[in-house]
Amino acid sequence: MIQRNHYLLQIKEAFEIHSICAILGPRQCGKTTLAKLYTKNLPEIHLFDLENPQDLAMLDAPSLTLPPLNGIIVIDEIQRKPELFPYLRFLADNSDKKFLILGSASQDLIQQSSESLAGRITYIELPPFQLNEVNDMRIHWMRGGFPKSFLAPSTIQSDKWRINYIKTFLERDLSMMGIQTVPNNMRRLWSMLAHYHAQIANLSDLSRSLDMTDKTIKRYMDILEGCFMIYQLKPWFENISKRQIKRSKLYIRDSGIFHTLLGVSGDNILKHPKCGASWEGYALENIIHSYDNDLYEFYFWAIEKGSELDLLVIKGDQRIGYEFKYSEAPKITKSMHIAMDHLKLDHLYVVTPVERSYPLGDRISVKSLKEAISHQI
Q1: Can you tell me the distance from the alpha carbon of 376 to that of 109, in angstroms, rounded to the nearest whole number?
Q2: Backbone CA torsion sign across 335, 341, 343, 344
Q3: Does the pLDDT value for residue 377 go beyond 60?
Q4: N vs C: which end of the chain shows fewer Cβ within 10 Å?
Q5: Long-range contacts of the stretch 266-273 (C-beta < 8 A, 24+)
Q6: Helix, strand or coil for residue 133?
Q7: Which residue ranges make up each domain of the chain?
Q8: Cα 276–359–142 angle (5° rounding)?
Q9: How would residue 346 be classed by pLDDT, with cut points 50, 70 and 90?
Q10: Coil, strand, or helix at residue 122?
Q11: What is the pLDDT of residues 237-291, one digit of tens each?
């Protein structure tokens, strides 16, 4: 079992500040397992799984069920009952109870939590397994980080798990969260977005291709982002004369789900036209999670029909740039020099699948992904 000690420490620290800790992440990324690891040696634990009809019914009357309980109270799949939040706020203000709540939707998608629990809750985003938690980058890249996909006994079983995961997410999970969609339309959009992976998604093009309104596509994309399925990386603007890109760049967050949406299995991604885009998304996801998201900001930067930078990481006046290249011997490009000059980068890292790192130029280095994710500004 992968212990995920970094996240266990985050939970411990969260309870030193607030009485409520929320672990948010996609379905089946390991939230329940993490909660069990955290609570296994505690003297008193009360678990409510809101996918269990009996537990769900017990919390229909939280003012009767929760007050007598002591110790840690764990509420799993909280997005199924967001009306609990006002009462959790009351208990947070009027008792010494501790709540560990788990959810498969983002803070923004579970709107009531941000409105009702402000100042009383710590949010921890739990992604699927990241590279710094596993020992095989190749399998992790091919299969993604969802535990049952990564740990599957064979490539075929991993593929089948992801195919079923996508189907279940569309046909059951969204409706159980109270999110109304047309599953077939959402499936078509999600598959189409895979072809825009590591690119700027044009809503008008998607609308014409799928015969859906821009408004519906925007809503569906917000849902996919709120459920941790896609990531929209915002653009950065500099005060320069050249026209800069002002639309977000799209990524399918889990590399294994991305490969399944493309219809690619195992090492076949290495021969696919989207191999470079797959590497970019995989490396970007792991690097972003290697930073403390409360302290750092993340952007991409691009000039229309000109230079670009895959990832810009900012903390105060410090700026680090990343370029992602599926290459054994990347070269310095004119685009890199322009990004260094316009963005005043402290350093630019070119992240590749190589095992060794080496300098490429003044404040420009080639980095292996394993070394890049251990780097902090």
Answers
A1: 30
A2: positive
A3: no
A4: N
A5: 266/142, 266/155, 266/159, 267/142, 269/141, 269/142
A6: helix
A7: 5-125, 131-372
A8: 25
A9: very high
A10: strand
A11: 877 667 778 889 999 999 999 999 999 999 999 999 999 999 999 999 999 999 9
* Overall average pLDDT of the 51-72 stretch: 95
The helix, strand and coil proportions of the chain, stated in percent and rounded to the nearest 5, come to 45, 20, 35
- Give the homologous superfamily in CATH for domain 5-125: P-loop containing nucleotide triphosphate hydrolases (3.40.50.300)
DSSP string across 134-194: -S-HHHHHHH-S-HHHHT-SSHHHHHHHHHHHHHHIIIIIHHHTT----HHHHHHHHHHHH
Identical fold between 5-125 and 131-372: no
Tokens representing residue 81 in the block:
């009952």
Q: Residue 241: what pLDDT?
A: 61
Per-residue pLDDT, 114: 66
Cα gap 162→143, rounded to integer Å: 9
Radius of gyration of the chain (CA): 22
Residue type, 187: R
**DSSP E strand boundaries for 193-296:** 199-200, 230-233, 249-252
The per-residue pLDDT for 74 is 98
Nearest to 106 by CA among 114, 116, 98: 114
Q: How many CB atoms lie within 10 A of CB 317?
A: 7
Average pLDDT over residues 103-116: 78
The pLDDT value recorded for residue 112 is 67
- AA letter at 20: I
289 sits in which H/E element: helix 275-290
- Tokens describing residue 211: 């015969």
119: helix, strand or coil = coil
Under CATH, which number does the domain 131-372 receive? 1.10.10.10
Confidence of residue 110 (pLDDT cuts 50, 70, 90): confident
Query: What is the value of pTM for the model shown?
Result: 0.93
